[in-house]
Amino acid sequence: MKYPAVFEPAEEGGFVITFPDVYEAITQGDEEREGIDMAQDALMTMFTHLIREGKPINPPSSPKGRKIRMIELPAVAALKTELYIAFQASGIRKAELARRLGIPKTTVDRLFDFSNHTRLDRIEAAFAALGKRIVIKVKDAA
């Protein structure tokens, strides 16, 4: 899962980084590599906040341009973000998802928590309860 980030040169050097799909997030970096790391951290921080507040997360768009860098989320964070987006789109409540999974309602929040080490089979079951399935693709490193 990759989100577009706009890298605007800053007057004092480096970059100011914003996100077309996550307008609340903004960060900066002195050089491009640092900016990419900071952008990933900004996305994960903002998604953690949005999930905690029960607010929607927009799926990533695919804008083009020389100022755009695609910021890839770590695999587990990407899975949990996709799961949260699917959950929000389903319109069901956490209690219903818990019932479908046979788990306590309080455990549902852990499915979306980036810092919680959720087993892959549990994430897969949650997707199935929402009528979705996980498809994994492995690519050569760039």
Question: What do these coordinates show?
Answer:
- This protein is of the alpha+beta class and 142 residues long.
- The protein is built from 5 helices and 4 strands, in the order E-E-E-H-E-H-H-H-H.
- A 4-stranded antiparallel β-sheet has the order 3-2-1-4, with helices on one face.
- Helix 3 (94-101) packs across helix 4 (105-112).
- The longest helix is centred in the N-terminal third of the chain and has 22 residues, at 32-53.
- The mean pLDDT is 93.
Give a brief description.
The protein has 142 residues and is of the alpha+beta class. The chain has 2 domains: 2-72, Double Stranded RNA Binding Domain (2-Layer Sandwich); 75-129.
Key words describing this protein structure:
142 residues, Double Stranded RNA Binding Domain, 4-stranded antiparallel sheet, 4 strands, alpha+beta, elongated
Number of strands: 4
Protein structure class: alpha+beta
Q: Helix count, per DSSP?
A: 5
Distance between the termini: 15 Å
Per CATH, which architecture of the largest domain? 2-Layer Sandwich
Q: Specify the biggest β-sheet.
A: 4 strands, antiparallel
Strand order of the largest sheet: 3-2-1-4
Radius of gyration: 17 Å
Spans with pLDDT under 50 lasting ≥5 residues? Answer: none
What do we call the CATH topology of the largest domain?
Double Stranded RNA Binding Domain
Helix content: 40-55%
CATH uppermost class of the largest domain: Alpha Beta
Task: Calculate the mean pLDDT score and round it.
Answer: 93
Give me the secondary-structure topology.
Layout: E1 2-9, E2 15-18, E3 26-29, H1 32-53, E4 68-72, H2 75-90, H3 94-101, H4 105-112, H5 120-129
Antiparallel strand pairs: 1-2, 1-4, 2-3
